Amino acid sequence: GQNIDQPTEMTATEGAIVQINCTYQTSGFNGLFWYQQHAGEAPTFLSYNVLDGLEEKGRFSSFLSRSKGYSYLLLKELQMKDSASYLCAVMDSNYQLIWGAGTKLIIKP
Amino acid sequence: ETGVTQTPRHLVMGMTNKKSLKCEQHLGHNAMYWYKQSAKKPLELMFVYSLEERVENNSVPSRFSPECPNSSHLFLHLHTLQPEDSALYLCASSQEEGSGASKQFFGPGTRLTVL
Q1: What is the predicted pLDDT for the residue at B73?
Q2: Residues of A in contact with B103 (CB under 8 A)
Q3: How far apart are CA B18 and CA A47, in angstroms?
Q4: What are the φ and ψ backbone dihedral angles of B84, each rounded to 5 degrees?
Q5: Which of B9, B35, B76, B105 lies 20 to 30 Å from A38 when distance is taken between CA atoms?
Q6: Which pLDDT score is estimated for B101?
Q7: Residues of A in contact with B98 (CB under 8 A)
Q8: pLDDT digits (tens, 9 = 90+) for B53-73
Q9: pLDDT, tens digit, for every residue of A39-73?
Q10: CA angle A105, A51, A99 (to 5 degrees)
Q11: Under a CB-based contact definition with an 8 Å cutoff, are residues B95 and B31 in contact?
Q12: Residues of A in contact with B43 (CB under 8 A)
């Protein structure tokens, strides 16, 4: 079966760096997405990786290794507003998105 | 503001009621989606429409009935629901369906409680 694994919850300190990991086993691969979802709000797009390597976008970076079935989302200079759930999703060979359960990130002052 | 709106934001209904959820996208997209989000579970894709044609139905119970009258509007008609159907129902749209780079834009969701 198809599976996306990410930690259920993480805690970090304001101003620090945190890395949220995502591993996947899917039938085929057509890209990996990261979304941010604040409580009670819509998920919003953060990043898309289809080739190996690091994509940097401001304080957020996303890394992909297709051979390892692995990605991470790196958040730098954490702010209180970064407290949210972070969803990892992989597009399989049928172009269907397979979603992880999300990682709830708690930022402490 | 993502360009996708959903109404109502909250809905409480009994198991014998009939209600409808509405979604509208203002992005000119060709594909629309219904998802179910339960606590601590992955998003579950329910229905996909591309150019107003249904292309995906992931074995959803018949008590959920989608309708896509045009590329900007999507409805989810609900009848004789069960308490386990209580969840956040999210609508999303994308430029096209079946494309790796076509990211999805989500509405804020309808929080449904079935009593």
Answers
A1: 96
A2: 33, 45, 48
A3: 38
A4: -70, -5
A5: B76
A6: 67
A7: 95
A8: 888 777 899 999 999 999 999
A9: 988 999 999 999 999 999 999 999 999 999 999 99
A10: 40
A11: yes
A12: 87, 89, 97, 99
